[in-house]
Amino acid sequence: MGWGCGYRTLQTLCSWVESLNKVATGTTSPTSVPSINQIQTALVDIGDKPSNFRHSKQWIGSVEICLCLDVFYDIPCKIIHIEKGSQFKQYCSEIFHHFVNVGAPIMMGGETDNSSKGIIGVRLKNPALLIADPHYFGTVNSAKHLLELGFIHWLPVSELHEDSFYNLCLPQARTPVKSNKS
């Protein structure tokens, strides 16, 4: 079965939630995040997708990620729809406040810029997004290694597709959350 970068970004957000729970409970045991099959099954079970979505190679975006975080962890999410990449700069302050007040990574998907991106930081002066690229696979030796390979990088908002819309999924979890994974 194939997978898309939206699934990997969701799994990154789930890993963040799992790490919150580990810190709160003092647990050191390994955690698991939902598999692609579990994600697809959840979307079918809640009626968002038809049954043939299961085991397909269809992509997911910000809305599906919002739904899955609710299903798996009871986490509400805020969706920000940005009509054009050229308007993105005006949302950087809101993204900054999300990181200050909540801290959760953000999923970003777009129309013509349709590769999912995990936003893990924002710079307000010379606005840019700190991106965790979900296309990396393999063993992570260090953050420096990911930086050198370009899988963690600053993306100036001026480089976003001017005429593409963007959807952001901002998880609203501030404290440890329950897990509904089966």
From TrEMBL:
Matching entries from Pfam families are given as: Peptidase_C78 (PF07910)
UFSP1/2/DUB catalytic domain: from which residue to which, for each copy? 2-169
Give the GO molecular function terms: deUFMylase activity
Q: Which gene encodes it?
A: LOC106059905
Listed InterPro entries: UFSP1/2_DUB_cat
Hydrolase is among the record's keywords: yes
Name used for this protein in its record: Ufm1-specific protease 1-like isoform X2
The UniProt entry, under Gene3D superfamilies, shows: 3.90.70.130
Similarity comment text for this entry: Belongs to the peptidase C78 family.
Protein keywords: Hydrolase
